[in-house]
Every structure is written in C-alpha cells, then in structure tokens.
Amino acid sequence: MTMTKIKLRLNQQQLELIDNTVRSGESNSRKDLIRRALREFAKANLPQPEKNQ
Fold first, then answer.
1. Which of 6, 21, 31, 33 could join 27 via S-S bond, C-beta 3.0 to 4.6 A?
2. In the 8-state DSSP scheme, what is residue 47?
C-alpha cells in the first residue's frame, strides 16, 4: 500500500459531524474515521489494480 500525506480543511460543522460520529462509536478517532472514508471513496471511485492471475 502506498502512503500519501493529505491535508484536509474542515469547517466547524464538518468537525462536529465527525466528532458526533466518533462519539456514537462508529470509529475510535477522527483520524481513523477519515482514513476509512478515504478508503471507501477510493474503492468506489478509483480504478482498482488488476490482480495477478
């Protein structure tokens, strides 16, 4: 897996939504939740590498 650093700019409402999601038990931290969201977005929107057969 390739590691890429990203920088997010979130407004107050977005931070509150993330914090509420973490509080509800969906994730352990903001960082974990954002990583999960990025993985799910990439899986749904980016071309997937072909597996060797």
1. 33
2. P
Please choose, from the candidates 31, 28, 4, the residue with its C-alpha nearest in 3D space to the C-alpha of residue 15: 31
* DSSP helix, strand, coil percent of the chain (3-state; round to 5): 55, 0, 45
pTM of the model as a whole: 0.76
Q: What is the pLDDT of residues 1-53, one digit of tens each?
A: 678 888 999 999 999 999 999 999 999 999 999 999 999 999 999 888 787 65
The torsion defined by the Cα of 27, 32, 38 and 39, in degrees rounded to 10, comes to -80
